[in-house]
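Exercise: predict the fold of this chain.
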Amino acid sequence: MKPFSFVHIADTHLGYEQYNLAVRREDFARAFQEAIEKSIELKPDFMIIAGDLFHQARPSNKTLEHTIRSFRRLKEADIPVLVVDGSHDAAPNVITGTILNPLDSAGLIYYLPRHENACWENESCYVYGIPNFRTRRRTERQLPIFYDVKKPMPRSDKFNIFVFHMALGIPELVKGKPADFAEASPDYIPEGFDYYAGGHIHEPWQLPFKGSILVYSGSTETVSYEDAEVDKGFYYVEINSKREVEINRIRLASPRRFKILECNFTGYPPRKITEEAIEIVRENDEPGVILIPVLRGILPAEASRREINIRRIREAAEKALLVRPMVLMREKSIPAEVIQSIFESSIKSLKVRAFKYFREFFSERYGKEKAEKLAHLAADLVQPLIKGDEKGARNLLERIMDED
């Protein structure tokens, strides 16, 4: 088999105006442009884009224009671009189809699921790609149908690549993630491939899988603060004549810097949390950076997240592009049984004081025994009066009058 190489990239999310900032859309475009330039320098035999090329199913004309220019450069460099759709740029409906279709028709990309047998191949390599079905339920229902229509047929004499965009239910990948994170069981992915090129997970992964290797290339820009501190880039993969795989991480320099400021404010009142967060933001203020103060912990009883002054925290930086606080504080309420015990304790204390007062008052008119009896009855009025129990208070008063 003749040696060859390819670029594996995914999750470029072109057109994403993160935080409603046009400059963030430009950041995603700049990162993609750097990836294109580095790919042209590497001179691979082809490029794989494993989904979420665009952030939206219908990108703006400006985003399309920039993307077309990049693909034209790859075409002029004789680098075919093999693409599958992701959860963001999948077809919104059957009638309109995905935006990848016209790009395919223009000869700028090769949208794998659209073509006969969903594959592309040359003398050394067979590449097969599936569409994204967005949800686990639809994937499990429609992917087997897709396989029936366009059957995966890895070649025994070639290096075989399977391209997809979804999170698989593999323990290492789903650890610490929400229950619905995995979009399909690994059982839905066929065997017989030498390299499984994945997209959707925004951090790079390499895992043994079905006798070969599963690779997620990660994103090229920060899509969520949770992946902000992960190196952004893509993979350059070289295959020698013995079908041995060498995977090289190509890091990007252009992605905007994020600083995640983890803060635990358990027990702090909202005003102090606000002041402390402001000070942390000021200490970390840098030109062009995006600051993400992550406020964690448990608020004091009866304090509310709404009392934290987010506006002041956002305005604390002078140099940063943006301050985006994440308030993950938990509110702590007083349990009902505690409130009841406090209330009952207060009533008991008040009744004792009331009894002493009424005993002194009635002792001026009655003997000790009667004065104490009337004082007990009068003190018993405290609880129904506080609770608004007029009927109970009236009954007690009538008893006091009868005793008198």
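Check your answer against the key: The first strand starts at residue 4 and ends at 9.
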